[in-house]
Each structure stands twice: as structure tokens, then as C-alpha cells.
Design goal:
Elements: H1 2-23, H2 30-51, H3 58-82
Helix pairs in contact: 1-2, 1-3, 2-3
Transmembrane segments: 6-24, 31-52, 58-80
Membrane topology: Multi-pass membrane protein
Keywords: Cell membrane, Membrane, Transmembrane, Transmembrane helix
Length: 83
Amino acid sequence: MYVMGFVLFLLIGALAGWLAGNFMKGGGFGLVGNIVVGILGAIFGGFIFNILGLTAGGLVGSLVTATVGAVLLLYIVGLVKKA
């Protein structure tokens, strides 16, 4: 059961990374980089949503949380990259 959850987490993160790369035109890192950013963004988004007291229920909520986290992460990395 835990393996299925982990695989689903990776798939959601990968999809979120791809979506974030499309939202942040010019802010992406290619397919593999965006997948990694999406997975890290899923963790980051979950942390941010938890601090704000928001919950992401279900598959769509998890995808939204991961995508928001990935977009924020790409934005932060873009700022650091420019500096």
C-alpha cells in the first residue's frame, strides 16, 4: 500500500512540474528538471498549505498543492539564478 502512495506522489509531482514549467514560461529546467522541481514542489506546497491551515483533499487537491509549490519553487529558483 505504501508503494502505491509513493508512486502516486511521484506521478503527481511529475505532472505538477510539467504544469509549473508551462506556467512559468522560460522558468523551466527541461523535462527531467521540471519533474524534479515538481516533486520538490509537492513537498514545498504541502508545507506551505499546512502553515496556512489549508488542506488538499483528493487527487485534484494534491495536484493543485503540488503545482502551486512547484510554481513558487521555480519562481524562487529564478530569483536566485538572476542574482
